[in-house]
Write a structure and sequence with these properties.
Layout (H helix, E strand, L loop, with lengths): L1 E5 L17 H9 L4 E4 L4 H10 L7 E3 L4 E4 L11 E2 L5 E4 L4 H15 L2 E4 L5 H8 L3 H7 L6 E6 L5 H9 L4 E4 L4 E4 L4 H10 L6 E6 L5 H4 L4 E4 L9 H6 L4 E2 L4 H13 L3
Parallel strand pairs: 1-2, 1-11, 2-3, 11-12, 12-13
Antiparallel strand pairs: 3-4, 4-6, 5-6, 7-8, 8-10, 9-10
Helix pairs in contact: 1-10, 3-6, 4-5
Length: about 270
C-alpha cells in the first residue's frame, strides 16, 4: 500500500487563493490508483471536510489542528478503539489539548513575553476573513477551534522560540504556520501521522509533503519527504537543513505538489 500525507496551505493548496487546481492531475492519478491522501493541517475539522469534498478526495483520515486530533472515516481499515463516533459518521481520536483549555493559557504567554497576543477566540468571523482572505462563511469554519488557539502578535513581532519557551512553561507549545502562530498541546503532526500509518497494512510506503517548519515533524515521520517551495522565499532553510535527503519540488504550492506526487506514484 502507498499513502500520501500532506500539508495544505502553501503545499497542496495555493497560499493566496486556497486553490488546488494545479494539483488536479496528481489528485486524479492518486484516486485512480487507490493511493489515499491524508490531509495534515492547522485547519479545523469543519474546514478540512469541506476541502476534502471540494477536491473529491477518496475517504481517508484527516489530521486536524496541527495534530490535535485525527478524524477517521467509518470504513477505514483500522481505527483505534479510543476514537469516538461523530454525528458525520466518522470517528474522532483526540490527541491534544482542548481549545477551551488553551485560550486562557495564551494570556499567560502574553504576560510572559510582554506583548499583546490576539487569539482567534477574541476575533470575529469578519476579522479572520480580513486577515486570511477567506470568504466569511469559511472564516466561520476556521474559528470552530477544538484543539488549538491561533494568534497574532499585536505590534512588534515576537520570535517563535521566545513564544514557544513561554508556552512550554505552562505545558503547551507554539508553532507557526503561514499566517498565524498556533498555541497547541503536546501533540503534533508527526505523532498523528505515525498513528495513521500504524492503522495501515504492514509495509505501507509513505510520502510526506510540506513547506514550513511546522511540517517538520510530519516530514520526519514518513519514508520519503518532499519540500515544497514557498512562493516568495523558496525552499525553507530549516527544512532543507533538517531533511538533507528530501525531494525538492520544482515549483511552489500545488504545482510543485503535483510534480512530486506524479513522479512518486510513477516510481521515479
Amino acid at each position: 500500500m502507498r499513502l500520501i500525507l500532506t500539508d495544505l496551505d502553501g503545499t497542496l493548496i495555493d497560499h493566496h487563493t486556497y486553490s488546488a487546481d494545479a494539483a488536479r492531475p496528481a489528485l486524479t492519478v492518486a484516486r485512480d490508483k487507490g493511493v489515499p491522501i491524508v490531509l495534515c493541517s492547522s485547519k479545523t475539522l469543519a474546514e478540512m471536510r469541506m476541502l476534502a469534498a471540494r477536491i473529491a478526495l477518496s475517504p481517508a483520515p484527516l489530521v486536524v489542528e496541527n495534530g490535535g486530533a485525527i478524524w477517521f472515516p467509518a470504513d477505514w481499515p483500522s481505527v483505534p478503539e479510543t476514537a469516538t463516533p461523530q454525528v458525520d459518521g466518522g470517528l474522532l481520536l483526540v490527541l491534544g489539548a482542548r481549545a477551551e483549555e488553551l485560550a486562557p493559557k495564551l494570556d499567560v504567554v502574553a504576560r510572559a513575553v510582554g506583548r499583546d497576543l490576539r487569539g482567534f477566540s477574541r476575533m470575529t468571523d469578519a476579522e479572520v476573513a480580513t486577515r486570511t482572505g477567506l470568504a466569511l462563511d469559511v472564516a466561520s469554519l476556521a474559528r470552530q477551534r477544538q484543539f488549538s488557539e491561533p494568534f497574532v502578535c499585536v505590534g512588534e513581532l515576537v520570535d517563535l522560540s521566545v513564544l514557544d519557551a513561554a508556552a512550554r512553561e505552562i505545558g503547551a507549545r507554539v508553532t507557526r504556520g503561514g499566517r498565524f502562530f498556533h498555541l497547541v498541546g503536546a501533540a503534533d503532526k508527526g505523532a498523528a501521522a505515525r498513528l495513521v500509518v500504524g492503522t495501515c497494512p504492514p509495509g505501507t510506503h509513505t510520502l510526506g509533503l510540506g513547506d514550513a517548519p511546522n511540517d517538520l515533524p510530519l516530514l520526519q515521520s514518513v519514508d520519503e519527504a518532499a519540500i515544497v517551495p514557498q512562493p516568495e522565499t523558496g525552499l525553507h532553510p530549516t527544512l532543507v537543513r533538517e531533511l538533507p535527503n528530501a525531494r525538492h519540488a520544482p515549483a511552489a504550492g500545488p504545482a510543485g505538489w503535483n510534480a512530486i506526487v506524479l513522479e512518486w506514484i510513477s516510481g521515479g
